[in-house]
């Protein structure tokens, strides 16, 4: 699961939820360039990206 969230309580809750469900997470820094984020997602094969509404445009194809 890719986690693209601003640092804060929501990020910690999402991280713990993914781990509690037995999954693995990929931290995606919203400040990274779009090309780097796309490469990280392709390379990891992440099936899901959790993000905030304000960051949604960065992760919509």
Structure notes:
The chain has helices at about 10-20, 35-45, and strands at about 1-5, 25, 50. The chain is an alpha/beta fold and about 60 residues long. The longest helix is centred in the N-terminal third of the chain and has 12 residues, at about 10-20. It is globular. The mean pLDDT is about 90. Strand 1, helix 1 and strand 2 form a beta-alpha-beta unit. Strands 2-1-3 form a three-stranded parallel sheet, covered by helices on one side. The chain has two helices and three strands; from the N terminus they run βαβαβ.
Topology:
Layout (H helix, E strand, L loop, with lengths): L1 E3 L4 H12 L5 E2 L6 H11 L4 E3 L10
Parallel strand pairs: 1-2, 1-3
What percent strand? Answer: 5-15%
Poorly predicted regions are none
Average pLDDT taken over every residue:
89
Question: Radius of gyration over alpha carbons?
Answer: 11 Å
Instruction: Identify the strand order in the major beta sheet.
Output: 2-1-3
Element-by-element helix/strand order: EHEHE
- In whole angstroms, the N-to-C terminal distance is 17 Å
Tally of DSSP β-strands: 3
Largest sheet: 3 strands, parallel
Total number of helical segments?
Answer: 2
Class inferred from helices and paired strands = alpha/beta
The outline comes out as globular
